[in-house]
Write a structure and sequence with these properties.
By secondary structure, the chain is an alpha/beta fold. The protein is built from 12 helices and 8 strands. It has helices spanning 10-17, 32-41, 57-70, 85-91, 105-115, 139-149, 159-163, 165-169, 181-187, 195-211, 223-232, 242-259, and strands at 22-27, 45-49, 73-77, 96-99, 151-156, 176-179, 215-219, 236-241. Helix 2 (32-41) packs parallel to helix 3. The longest helix has 18 residues, at 242-259. The chain is globular, with a radius of gyration of 20 Å.
Length: 268
């Protein structure tokens, strides 16, 4: 049986082909069924969250495999660049890496070094992993995918990062930005709708656009939230997360059930 070349990035393909927003959601629960369900719902990508959940690298491995099999792009948010976690997750088949709290060009370059092969970065070669189809594809295809298809996303979560967004976005090997409005506003001791925060976010969006790099955000699972993201200039958005989507659906079901009225029972 002849091995096929590695596919192109599903996330990049969605950005190139979708006129509207590219839609994703966070995965907070280490359950492969959740990835299946959001894939069936029609999301373009998932972000498996290793920063704000208890998901382990081993669990992430299973979630990544499920995403690949169900046709939804698996991106993993790492807690940091420590411990060689980035190349391990990429060799596990992750289509992209999201790095939190990238506040400077230097930190963006460090992320690139972890995610890219030489000469752009310092990622080691592991072509006998899932990312290399267990060694069944030419090494050149494995290396090309890592350099050209893997998506590296830097999170903009501070005033310093927002002000330097254009320079961060222009770092070779970085593909996209994501605004973390919650951390950005908290770091400034202000609400997310405070004029200073909205100005900083607008600055980050302009910076990404000037660099020709897509930028996204995280919001709610409503048409209003998606429309606000589109109006602001975001190319992709994360709509809620698996746990919250389950909670909302469960609460709606219980509310509907409690609203039902039974006929009066006759008592003897």
């Amino acid at each position: 049986m002849t091995a096929l070349p590695l596919p192109h990035s599903l996330f990049r393909a969605a950005l190139a082909s979708t006129e509207g927003l590219v839609l994703g959601t966070w995965i907070k629960v280490p359950a492969t069924e959740h990835v299946e369900l959001v894939a069936l719902a029609g999301f373009d990508f998932v972000v498996i969250d290793l920063e704000h959940s208890t998901i382990s690298t081993e669990s992430a491995y299973g979630l990544i495999g499920t995403a690949l099999l169900t046709g939804v792009a698996p991106i993993v948010r790492v807690p940091s660049l420590d411990g060689g976690i980035v190349p391990r997750l990429l060799d596990a088949g992750a289509e992209g890496i999201m790095v939190p709290h990238v506040d400077s060009v230097e930190e963006a370059r460090a992320a690139v070094a972890a995610a890219r092969f030489p000469p752009l970065g310092a990622r080691g070669v592991g072509a006998t992993s899932r990312a290399g189809a267990w060694g069944s594809i030419p090494r050149a295809d494995y290396l090309r995918y890592g350099q050209e298809e893997v998506v590296l996303i830097a999170q903009i979560e501070s005033a310093a990062a927002a002000l330097a967004a254009a320079e961060i976005a222009a770092v070779p090997g970085l593909d996209a930005l994501l605004v973390g409005a919650a951390d950005l506003s908290t770091s400034e001791g202000r609400a997310e709708d405070d004029p200073l925060i909205t100005q900083l976010i607008a600055r980050a969006i302009r910076g990404a656009q000037e660099a020709g790099v897509p930028i996204g955000n995280a919001g709610g699972a409503t048409q209003a939230a998606a429309q606000a993201a589109a109006d602001a200039g975001y190319a992709f958005t994360l709509m809620s997360n698996d746990a919250s989507l389950l909670a909302v659906g469960a609460s709606a079901a219980v509310a509907a059930g409690r609203a039902a009225r039974t006929p009066e029972r006759m008592t003897p």
